Amino acid sequence: MANVLGYGAQFNSNERALGISKEEFAEVYEKAVLLSADILANQLGVYSYRKVGKNNVFSHLGMEVPRFPFQGRIGNQWLPKGHIDQIRSEAELVDIELNMTQYPDSFFHGAAENFFEYALTPNQEYDMNVLVEPILNMVMKAKRDGLTDLSMFLNHPDVPAIATETYTDSAKTVANATVVAAQPAGMSNEKWLAFHDQMRIKYDATNFGRTGWVSKLDLLAGGTNPNGYSTHFKQIVDADYSNGKMVGSALDLFGDMVDTSPIALRELVYATNPADRPVIMASREVFDKFISELQALGTDIEYLDFIVDGERRAVNYQVANWRGVAVMACPEFEKFDLHTGVKRLRAVLTARGNVSILSKVEPISNPVLQGEQGLVVQQSPLLRDKGRIDMMSYTSVGAGICDYDLIVYARSNPNL
Asked: What end-to-end distance do the CA atoms of the chain give, in Å?
């Protein structure tokens, strides 16, 4: 057994193949991808992580107990008051794969050897074992970034708004599609096509469940609501947004979002325990305006500490306190807009744990390795392939909102 990323790995030296078992890779995936994809949101408890079985449709099931169950005694009469209500919402996972190829030349000699803290003596042959961990660490970073994009913006309505697609198969897989689009300024055609290919997996305008959690909010804000979920939306008016900047009041926006929220969410705003209070995730422009308004008022800004493994490491200048509610800058909003060319201001007020990230590791069968693998890395023995290293993993991902009465969404019109 080899040791890779701190986990046992099966290595077949004759076939130049390495595999991490499905069970072991599920642990690697959880720690290196899921829990590291958005450290700030995880620290604040925004997300809950759900493991999904063979069925790719996940039902969030909650129970709402009566808020005011008591009444005065009424003698011999039986007049029951209240009952436990069931809260249900659904989300669907999509099957995804990571297939990557790496040639060893780019990792050896000069700066690369210094960067990865290894070096080869003259005439020493390329060793796959030396490359596995640095390559896998970079693969995990790619998976983290991709998971964040998919969980938030999968099949987002702003993506097809700037692309025309001609499908060649009934499953509508983008891999078999011709994409005709003008990519945003500064984005290469190659990156645009890769982004579009990832973000439009099995797109179906009628499937609300097969979308990222921000995609769901934007669909609801645009009037698409096939399942009849509760909608709590606050429009950021045009006058508050100019040349990509927020010129209106962020403090007023947050107050309006609380006023717009259902009573159950408003009660959480006033919860005695700070850990029970909701969180606001805001576009960087909204967050910066919020901070500048506090500074203009002469208010001492209370930034939250950055906690790593239970220890305070530093002051976190991306999370600040507003009336006991944590306000977090969410640069993922702007990053997505850079890729689509459709810019909006956004803010989300949500109960903690109300956004669920769904995932599972799918098995890979490889004839040169024993058992089901979660990740397979194999180096080609063929001379013409020049030491090429191939990597493969299968996962399924999705995202959902547990209770739509515990989330309020604010956004502006695009590109003002």
From this structure: 58
User: Strand, coil or helix: what is 127?
Assistant: coil
Nearest to 412 by CA among 329, 347, 339, 338: 347
Residue 240 is predicted with a pLDDT of 92
Cβ distance 391 to 140 under 8 Å? no
Gap between the Cα atoms of 102 and 28, Å rounded: 21
The rounded distance, in Å, linking the Cα atoms of 313 and 205 is: 44
Separation CA 319–CA 45 (nearest Å): 13
pLDDT, residue 112, reads: 46
Q: What percentage of the chain reaches a pLDDT higher than 70? A: 75
Beta strand pairing status for 407-412 and 346-350? antiparallel
| 349-360: b (≥16 Cβ within 10 Å) or e | bbbbebbbbbbb
Q: Please check whether residue 268 is in contact with residue 325, taking contact to mean a CB–CB distance below 8 angstroms.
A: no
Domain range summary for the chain, segments of one domain joined by +: 2-63+90-159+200-412
Percent of the chain surpassing pLDDT 90? 27
Beta-carbon contacts of 75 under 8 Å, excluding residues fewer than 6 positions away, are none
Q: Please tell me the distance from the alpha carbon of residue 200 to that of residue 337, in angstroms, as a whole number.
A: 15
- DSSP three-state, residue 116: coil
Residue 228 has pLDDT above 70, yes or no: yes
DSSP symbols for 150-196: HHHHTT-TTTGGG-EEEESSTT--GGGEEEE--PPTT--HHHHHHHH
Longest Cα–Cα distance of the chain, Å, equals: 97
Q: Kindly state the helix (H) or strand (E) to which residue 304 belongs, with its residue range.
A: strand 303-308
CB 48 within 8 A of CB 353: yes
**CA 406 to centroid of chain Cα atoms:** 19
324 torsion bin: left (phi>0), alpha (psi -120 to 50), beta (else): left
Q: Which of 410, 122, 88, 366 is nearest to 248 (CA)?
A: 410
